[in-house]
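Might I ask for a little of your time on a matter of protein folding? Here, with my thanks, is the record as I have it:
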Amino acid sequence: MKSKIYRPQWVTGATDDPDSKPDVYITAEVPGAVQLDWGRAKGLPDHNFGSNVKLYESLHNKFWHYKTEFFVESVDGHTPELVFDSIEYQYDIYINSIRLISGQGIYTPVRIPLEEYSDTRIEVEVLIYPAPSKPGSKTRHEEYTLSCKPPFAYGWDWCPRLIALGLCGDVRVEYLPIVRIDSFVCLYRLSDDLNSAQITAEYSLK
């Protein structure tokens, strides 16, 4: 049996502090960004034209709360994992109101085993913090220096200020075979005359 994949549907809402709950949730498109979700929900004009982008600028200063619910199936011979390919930027991840993971950066996927939740319905929340900004920056160009976000997103002479936040990568529940290759490395050594090679494969099972 191939690995089964389920992609949950998300909603999101904003607050001014991390401990409050949003008064209103809107439909979230994942992968995506909170600015795009908010613009669709509120009927804001396209940020690519004129000075429309100014209507989106304050959104990166909010705490954004993503939320979903789904049933974790029990599949024989498989184990479920919740996978986040990329989260923008600083985040906490909760399952049933218990914080499991905190992190920051968009380049490291997050994998959460769900085996203990098999045959139950769970609530998953992701708290996205305001966009990172270096304290005491004299210019907008300096604000990005404590993060791995593109400098131009903070505002440049050729680019408006629009700092993306949200679940910017795919999010899915994978039902993986219990016995599977966990890591794989292929090494080779060429002969001096380049006519042959010694190839070694190293792997580990999970």
About this structure: The two ends are 17 Å apart (CA to CA).
